């Protein structure tokens, strides 16, 4: 009887040892698998995150072909010649003064006066041209006039003129036409009152 008890106890112990061994094995497996799961999760590298893109558009770069500097030079030359139909110079001379004496009449369209009714004539040269008074005196003689004297005149006379005293305007017009003078005028105070006086200036071309 004693041996059976020992055998039962021995079987019970063996069963307990076997159960404990199984529990230990199961527990070890659980611990092993649990640790591996944690280690693999901790050792794994985190997945790269995809950067977020901004929805705001960046400003476009300025055009690279824009001019970088202003023109450095202007046209180097102007037209070298003026239009040919435009006068290039102004008249070189102008009359220094207007006529101070106003003609009372012109020598045109005057009646022919007979030589017997013509007054005497005096001829004066108001230019530097020698012999001018003599030449005009001869021309007057050839036209039927009586020349009473000839000389030089000192003073400023605007243009060649036949001066006449009162009542001799028609005769002055006739004489002016005969000798080629373009103006007649009332006699000056220092001139004789019974004759015509001719003063020749540089404009006389006859």
Question: Would you kindly provide a brief summary of this structure?
Answer:
This protein has helices spanning 2-43, 132-142, 169-179; strands at 120-125, 147-152, 161-164, 184-186, 195-200. It is an alpha/beta fold and 206 residues long. It has a five-stranded mixed beta sheet with strand order 2-1-5-3-4, with helices on one face.
CATH level 1 class label of the domain at 115-200 = Alpha Beta
Order of helices and strands: HEHEEHEE
Strand order, largest beta sheet: 2-1-5-3-4
Per CATH, the architecture of the domain at 115-200 is 2-Layer Sandwich
**Gap between N and C termini:** 198 Å
As a percent range, the share of helical residues equals: 25-40%
Throw out a few tags for this protein:
5-stranded mixed beta sheet, Alpha-Beta Plaits, rod-shaped, 31% helix, 3 helices, alpha/beta, 206 residues
Structure write-up:
With 206 residues, this protein is α/β, with parallel strands linked by helices. Among the domains are: 1-32; 115-200, Alpha-Beta Plaits, CATH 3.30.70.2390. Helices cover 31% and strands 12% of the residues. It contains three helices and five strands, in the order αβαββαββ. It has helices at 2-43, 132-142, 169-179; strands at 120-125, 147-152, 161-164, 184-186, 195-200.
Can you lay out the helices and strands and say which pair or pack?
Blueprint (H helix, E strand, L loop, with lengths): L1 H42 L76 E6 L6 H11 L4 E6 L8 E4 L4 H11 L4 E3 L8 E6 L6
Parallel strand pairs: 1-2, 1-5, 3-4
Antiparallel strand pairs: 3-5
């Amino acid at each position: 009887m004693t041996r059976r008890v020992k055998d039962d106890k021995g079987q019970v112990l063996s069963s307990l040892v076997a159960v404990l061994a199984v529990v230990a094995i199961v527990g070890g497996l659980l611990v092993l698998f649990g640790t591996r799961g944690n280690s693999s999760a901790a050792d794994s590298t985190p997945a790269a995150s995809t950067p977020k893109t901004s929805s705001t558009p960046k400003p476009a770069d300025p055009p690279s072909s824009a001019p970088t500097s202003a023109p450095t030079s202007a046209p180097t030359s102007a037209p070298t010649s003026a239009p040919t139909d435009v006068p290039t110079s102004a008249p070189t001379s102008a009359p220094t003064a207007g006529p101070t004496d106003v003609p009372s009449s012109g020598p045109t369209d005057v009646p022919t006066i007979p030589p017997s009714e013509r007054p005497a004539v005096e001829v004066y040269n108001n230019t530097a041209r020698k012999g001018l008074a003599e030449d005009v005196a001869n021309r007057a003689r050839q036209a039927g006039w009586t020349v009473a004297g000839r000389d030089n005149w000192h003073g400023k006379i605007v243009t060649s003129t036949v001066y006449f005293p009162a009542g001799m305007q028609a005769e002055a017009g006739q004489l002016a036409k005969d000798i080629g003078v373009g103006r007649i005028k009332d006699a000056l105070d220092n001139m004789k009152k019974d004759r015509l006086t001719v003063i020749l200036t540089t404009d006389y071309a006859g």
